[in-house]
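Lab intake sheet, docking and co-folding queue.

SAMPLE TYPE: protein with bound small molecule
LIGAND NAME: zinc ion
LIGAND FORMAT: SMILES
REQUESTED OUTPUT: full 3D complex as C-alpha cells
PRIORITY: normal
SUBMITTED BY: R.K., bench team

The fields below were copied directly from the construct record.
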Amino acid sequence: MGPSPLARVLELPARHLTFGARAHAIRAGEHSDAVARSLELGNWTCHVCGIRLPGLMEFDGGHGPEPDDIRPICQICHNLDHAVWAAGLGRLVPIWAPDIPQPALTRICWITLALSRLVPGPFPASHQPPDDEEEVSGLADEMDDLDQQMRLRLKAGAESARLVLEMIDARRGCFAERFEATTFEAWLEALLVHLDRRKSIEPPLQAALNSVRTVPALLVFGYARTAPEARISAWESGRFVDVSGHIGRAFVDGLKVKEG
Ligand SMILES: [Zn+2]
Ligand SMILES: [Zn+2]
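RESULT FIELD (auto-filled):
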C-alpha cells in the first residue's frame, strides 16, 4: 500500500491546502483551453483513483499562473488535495480503514453514489435527492441503453451498496472512538497544530495517520443533512451549484464508452 494520502496532505504548503473552488474557477478561466484539452486527453478519468465520469471531472495542476501538467481529477480526490478548504465546508468525513487504500475507497464511494441515483430501491430515503422524480425516470432510460448483463450487475451492485453504507458508518464509529473527534476539520486542525509545534510526526501518530481515510459527506449524511456546498458541487457564476444530480448519468456514460 502506498504512502497515506493524509501524510502527503500534511506536507503540502498551506496555500495549497486552502485553495478553493473560487480560486480554481479563476484558474480555469485563465487556462480554459489547456483545461478543456487535458480533460479530453485524460479521457475524463481521475488520475488519482481511476474513476471515469465524463462531464464531471475537475482539473488538477494549473494552481499557479502557468498551466503546468493539468490532468483530470474527481471531486472526491480533489477535496483531499485541498483538505483544509474542503474540511471547512464539511465535505470530508473521516473513517478508520487501514485495510482499504484511499483510491479504492474513493471508487467505491463514487459507485455507491451513482447506484443510489440509478437504482434507488435499496438506499435509505435520506440518500434520495429531493424533487428528483423526473430525473430518476430519465435515468431509467439510461439504464435501458445498457445491455442486460450490465443492468443486472448494477442492480446487484445497488444491493451490496447498502453494505458499503453500513461499513462506512461502523468505521466512522471506530475513528471517533480512537481519536475522540467526530469531524475531519477538528482532527486536521489538531494535527496541523501538532505538526507546527513538533515539526515532525512521531511514529505512533504516523501509524494512526496511515489508518485514516475520508469519504464524501453526501454518502454519509444523505441529501437532507448535507449542505449544497458540501455535496458534489461546482462553482459557477460566483456560487456553488449542486451537480450531484449528474453522477448517475456520468457514471453510465463512463461505462458505455468503456464497454463499447
Ligand atoms: Zn478520483
Ligand atoms: Zn486543485
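REVIEWER NOTE: The chain has a mean pLDDT of 87.
SIGN-OFF: pending second check by T.M.
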